[in-house]
């Protein structure tokens, strides 16, 4: 039963790519791409249905209406506060300007009395507002320094001075505000500073309209900038995703190409090193032959051959003698440890005989001399 309205809402938004674009436009603050919506169609339908009940900031329609009412009420209260605050600051600026003028020029007594009366009235009004805080908080507040409102009101100037000040106040305030407006006009359009008074007043009457136009233009540019920022973020994300895909494709192509040419490259390197090694071996052989030719003559080679033959014969004779001795030694080992003792005794006696023969020989040679 509930599928009917949802399908109606979805069909009212659009289909296919148009639906995706409208969903993305309805939720600009969400970090989504058209690919995400394509891969998740049910989620896309949910967002399309949800777009009928919320705005781009995520607020529901009822909450949006309440928020607009609260903002209107706040704007009204703000306008009242700004009006009173601007009037109060304007009066304070008038007093400050008067104080500055007193130090640079002589001020008429009536004008001096006007500003002194106005300053006292402002101070008393400010003190009364500070003492009577219950009007804003709704609670009884303790008195400051033990003072009450009646005691502070006794510090008001004379009634005739207050009445005289009230009569002159609109005119003086108008002069001050007009001066500020002219200063603002000169700041906004410096080329109008040397214009006549009447022309300035005419242009001053249109200044608020121009300021409203400039404000609307600035807001429009700010909104355009915000939309361009969102679009730029989305395009940047899309660009980065496409760039990553391109890099991955390029890496795969490079890897495949490298694997294909690596075998041919290794084979060519192997052939090169084999040829180089063979060349080095041939060069070594040639150098060895050249050294032999420079070192050995024909006579020395024939003599070396004869020496080699003689040494080989002696080597064979020694090997035959070694074999016979090994056979004798093996036969002696069969006799055991008793023969080993006799052999050691025989070796000792043989050494003594040799020593005595050597001593006898030396003694005989000495006697002959």
From TrEMBL:
State one Pfam family annotation. Answer: HAUS4
Example GO CC term: the record gives:
HAUS complex
Give any GO molecular function from the UniProt entry.
microtubule minus-end binding
Q: Can you tell me which residues the record assigns to a coiled coil?
A: 301-328
Write out the entry's keywords from A to Z: Coiled coil
Q: Name one GO biological process term.
A: spindle assembly
Q: Which domain of life is it from?
A: Eukaryota
Specify the signal sequence span.
none
**Coiled coil among the record's keywords?**
yes
What InterPro entries does the entry give? HAUS4, HAUS4_met
- Lipid biosynthesis as a keyword of this entry, yes or no, is no
Query: Under which name does UniProt file this protein?
Result: HAUS augmin-like complex subunit 4
Q: Which organism is it from?
A: Lates calcarifer (Barramundi)
């Amino acid at each position: 039963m509930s599928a009917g309205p949802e399908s109606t809402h979805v069909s009212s938004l659009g289909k296919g790519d148009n639906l995706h674009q409208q969903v993305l436009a309805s939720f600009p603050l969400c970090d989504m791409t058209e690919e995400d919506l394509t891969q998740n169609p049910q989620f896309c339908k949910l967002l399309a249905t949800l777009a009928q009940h919320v705005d781009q900031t995520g607020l529901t329609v009822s909450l949006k209406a309440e928020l607009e009412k609260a903002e209107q009420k706040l704007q009204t209260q703000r306008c009242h506060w700004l009006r009173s605050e601007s009037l109060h600051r304007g009066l304070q600026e008038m007093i400050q300007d008067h104080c500055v003028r007193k130090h640079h020029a002589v001020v008429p007594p009536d004008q001096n009395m006007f500003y002194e009366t106005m300053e006292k009235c402002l101070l008393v009004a400010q003190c009364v507002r500070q003492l009577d805080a219950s009007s804003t908080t709704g609670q009884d507040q303790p008195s400051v320094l033990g003072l009450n409102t009646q005691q502070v009101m006794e510090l008001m100037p004379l009634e005739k001075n207050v009445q005289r000040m009230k009569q002159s106040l609109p005119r003086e305030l108008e002069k001050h505000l007009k001066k500020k407006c002219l200063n603002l006009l000169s700041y906004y359009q410096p080329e109008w500073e040397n214009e006549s008074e009447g022309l300035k007043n005419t242009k001053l009457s249109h200044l608020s309209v121009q300021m409203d136009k400039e404000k609307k233009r600035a807001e429009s540019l700010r909104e355009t900038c915000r939309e361009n920022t969102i679009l730029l973020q989305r395009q940047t994300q899309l660009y980065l995703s496409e760039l990553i895909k391109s890099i991955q494709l390029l890496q795969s192509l490079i890897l495949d190409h490298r694997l294909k040419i690596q075998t041919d490259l290794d084979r060519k390197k192997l052939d090169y090193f084999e040829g180089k090694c063979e060349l080095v071996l041939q060069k070594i052989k040639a150098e060895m032959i050249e050294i032999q030719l420079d070192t050995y003559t024909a006579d020395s080679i024939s003599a070396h051959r004869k020496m080699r033959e003689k040494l080989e014969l002696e080597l064979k004779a020694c090997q035959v003698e070694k074999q016979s001795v090994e056979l004798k030694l093996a036969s002696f080992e069969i006799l055991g440890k008793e023969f080993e003792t006799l052999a050691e005794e025989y070796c000792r006696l043989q050494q003594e005989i040799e020593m005595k023969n050597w001593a006898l020989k030396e003694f005989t040679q000495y006697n002959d001399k």
